[in-house]
Design goal:
Number of helices: 18
Radius of gyration: 23 Å
Largest sheet: 11 strands, mixed
Helix content: 25-40%
Shape: globular
Structural class: alpha/beta
């Protein structure tokens, strides 16, 4: 998800997770770990002891790379070093460097660079064959979040899959580019550390997941918001080829998944270094590496952090790779939510205690889009069709950023392989965990992030869904699980998800029974005013 600064008092929730610790070696007479202990797994780096739960097994806080501290800050990830004894894998690792946000458990910033860990969840019961694997990349605008934001143990049991969630470097720590750092990069282009972390985690999965009962040949990469953007970037990355066989993009096509051009990333890097007190390009890398994480975090506001185009990692923009057929030719499940923008409109207006009024609405559109486009948006989103001016504003934001970019991505992806399209459209869905903590009666509808709680335990919290929503959640889990297992999303009694190669423009509309049930929509392009937004640059 995209993290949003705190806008109201939030109920204190989860405490900060502790780092994994090393435990003494449990021994039989031979001095080796007991083979019958289902919570013990031996990796190439050493033994791990996880937990056995009612849903299966979980192994938390596993290092997949050397921690990027000291001289390894702004260096490409390196394989984790071996350890002796049995490493405890029962608590989450540290979150990567980030500010506080309004999400449960994120009341305080993290200044910890020792964070390149992942978590493995395996379903209950034995399987004669290795199970398919989903690797989940968390959201947070590439500046916040952690693998622990979802707990997929029930999803793993219901789908018969192994699920891996990943931490990766964020913000300036993950995406700083500059002339001095370019010389240290293997492809001569710096600024992709966070995405290279993700690829390092995928290489760990390829090498190690078989020891947890997973099939390294059947890996699906998946993510929501910035995690979805990461997936659509990895689809276009030649250095990720062979690390996965399918991809799931949830609300991740914003900005058409565009990376930063190299020249712009270098300018931003120089401006950041100056802001952080390291203005000399010749000494900036060493100067910045000497800065504490707190100072790096304090200086990163106001910059766009994301992948950089031009090197071996990402030779061309993802959209160009899709259109030219150079992206990975794997099945993709891609979609967005019907009311994505309500979250962002709320955060800008009502969440600040300043609900947008009818009188302010035209000027707000002009401020956002300029006088010419703002006038066209005003005509396309009249107040009479929306519950409030904030909702009208949110509809425009969501359509431009998410709905129409997802539909364009479907068209582009269909040129290189199967792409299955969905839209989460349960407008009765309860606000996701972060929003439930706020003192507001704002109607968020099917806003950004809201689908996540239908698939997983969000922030580890109990499900807020009612009976109808739980039925929809079971159906969604079936669609997602089928896609992970077979590359084709199916659900008992549910319609076939449209493959955009043969049914362009059609999407699976996920709804509760009282809203007509899940069906196929042929009108999403018009409903989201994509005729307007396709003619302007992606927001």
């Amino acid at each position: 998800m995209m993290k949003i600064p705190r806008v109201a008092s939030v109920v204190a929730a989860l405490a900060a997770a502790a780092a994994a610790s090393l435990a003494p070696l449990p021994a039989q007479a031979s001095g080796r770990p007991a083979a019958s202990d289902g919570a013990l797994v031996r990796t190439a780096a050493g033994w791990l002891r996880g937990d056995v739960t009612g849903e299966g097994r979980q192994f938390l806080g596993i290092p997949y790379a050397q921690q990027p501290v000291g001289g390894l800050r702004w260096k490409e990830p390196r394989p984790a070093k071996p350890w002796t004894g049995v490493r405890g894998a029962t608590t989450f690792g540290n979150r990567c460097v980030q500010n506080a946000s309004w999400d449960p458990g994120y009341e305080n910033p993290s200044h910890t660079e020792d964070c390149l860990d992942l978590n493995v969840y395996t379903p209950k019961g034995q399987s004669a064959k290795q199970r398919p694997v989903m690797v989940w990349l968390h959201g947070g605008g590439l500046t916040a979040g952690a693998g622990e934001d979802i707990v997929p143990d029930t999803f793993a049991r219901r789908t018969g899959t192994v699920v891996v969630t990943v931490n990766y470097r964020l913000g300036a720590m993950g995406f700083l580019a500059g002339e001095g750092l370019d010389g240290e990069a293997s492809d001569g282009v710096s600024g992709n550390y966070g995405l290279l972390d993700q690829q390092a985690a995928l290489r760990w999965v390829r090498a190690e997941i078989g020891r947890f009962g997973g099939d390294p040949r059947r890996v699906t990469i998946a993510g929501e918001s910035a995690g979805g953007r990461s997936v659509c970037t990895l689809l276009a990355s030649p250095t990720a080829r062979g690390l996965y066989r399918a991809g799931i993009v949830e609300s991740g096509a914003y900005g058409d998944c565009a990376g930063r051009e190299r020249a712009r990333a270098a300018r931003d890097g120089a401006a950041f270094a100056k802001k952080a007190g390291c203005p000399d390009p010749r000494t900036a890398p060493a100067c910045l590496r000497a800065k504490p994480a707190e100072e790096i975090l304090a200086a990163q506001a106001g910059f766009d952090w994301g992948p950089v185009v031009g090197g071996a990692f990402l030779p061309v923009q993802p959209e160009e790779a899709y259109e030219k057929g150079s992206a990975a030719r794997v099945p993709v499940l891609n979609g967005a939510n019907s009311d994505e923008g309500n979250l962002f409109a709320f955060a800008r207006f009502d969440g600040q205690g300043r609900p947008l009024t009818a009188e302010q609405y035209p000027d707000a559109l002009t401020d956002a889009y300029g006088p010419e486009l703002g006038g066209r948006v005003l005509q396309a989103y009249p107040l009479a069709e929306h519950a409030s001016p904030t909702h009208a504003y949110g509809a425009a934001v969501g359509d431009r950023m998410f709905a129409c970019t997802a539909l364009r991505m479907n068209t582009a992806l269909a040129r290189r392989g199967p792409v299955y399209a969905y839209e989460f459209a349960d407008r009765t869905s309860p606000p996701f965990a972060s929003l439930r903590e706020l003192d507001t009666d704002f109607d968020f509808g099917a806003t950004h992030v809201n689908e996540v709680q239908y698939l997983f335990k969000h922030f580890g919290l109990a499900s807020p869904l009612d009976a109808e929503q739980r039925a929809l959640a079971r159906q969604m889990v079936q669609y997602w699980g089928s896609f992970i297992r077979t590359g084709v999303p199916r659900a008992d009694g549910g319609p076939a998800v449209p493959d955009q190669r043969t049914r362009p423009g059609q999407v699976l509309s996920l709804r509760t029974a009282s809203a007509g049930g899940t069906t196929i929509s042929t009108t999403v392009h018009d409903e989201h005013r994509c005729g307007l937004w396709d003619a302007v640059p992606a927001g």
